Amino acid sequence: MKRIYYITLLLLAVFVVKSCSDDDSGTPETSALDTAKAEFVANYVNIVEASYNDALTKTKDMQTAVNNFVDNPSQATFETAKQAWLDAREPYGQTEAYRFYDGPIDGADGEPEGYINAWPLDEALIDYVETGTGGEDTSDNRQNIVNNTSQYPTISKEVIKDISGYNDNESNVSLGYHAIEFLLWGQDNTDPSARLNGQRAYTDYTTATNADRRGQYLKVATEILIEDLQSVIDQWKSGANYRNFFLGLDKDDAIDKILTGAAKLSKGELAGERMATAVENQNQEDEHSCFADNTHRDIFLNAESINNIINGTYTRTDGSIVSGTSLLDVLKLVNTTEASALEATAAEVMTYVTVISNT
Prior knowledge:
Elements: H1 2-19, H2 28-71, H3 75-93, H4 113-116, H5 157-163, H6 177-185, H7 211-236, H8 241-248, H9 251-281, H10 295-311, E1 313-315, E2 321-323, H11 327-332, H12 336-358
Antiparallel strand pairs: 1-2
Helix pairs in contact: 1-9, 1-12, 2-3, 2-7, 2-9, 3-6, 3-10, 6-7, 9-10, 10-12
């Protein structure tokens, strides 16, 4: 019920803010509102750019750790690579509200988002899985890329990209954060209530069958991820075409896009696919980060991405803060009652997801 209220308030904010466009534009109140809208949109763009830049920086750190592990495999370098993956997810999780309105992250055919963060994946497409656990339909000879040396004699960017989404099957995910997650942690066959992650041994990259190919896959998938993140940032940076387009939109239209992204993440994606589905099905395959068992952080960070828009502030990974006019600032000029309601509910939601994150 609380989730529904949250989304309702976000949609109401769209209606209330945009309805004020019917007011007399010559009044001082409307002039102040127009200024606030423009400042809110500009601040949003700055937050988006900073968020994606942090995600790229941390993912590049992950790439360094992954390359070091593959080149110098040990338990210590393995753990460092896994921690770097977890660290990279922190800023990326806060970018999820910048989707769902045909921006740079949601291009043609769902790319590059489908290459960056697609899930759930059929792990048997990538590497070995335990027999009888699902996802190991060997009737498709495209399965198990790492060990299928006859069909995939070389592992390259072209091969991995070609397979992702093969035959319009959304579980054919061969790249992105979650493919890398599986390659680092392995399949999670533990009891869902145990809160244990995958049990892959670092020796999968030393003495196991096709260890060298597994390492090559891990390196290539990480390299593709860096390139895809860079392609998104290149459209939001100062002077970029999409950034200029977004800032040039009628401010009501820009705000419509901003709140559409936040609203769709809030209800359909976060409350629905990432929370309700996993809880109702009691299936680890439905957890967003099931291999690393990091779903509790995904939930918090996704909610935080909405909260950042509401409050107009983002704390960067270096501790610096990007802030400015917020959705609340705009809404307060229109309807203080609704602004107070949204502020209180957002704070309550963050309290709940903080509990989830700390559990």
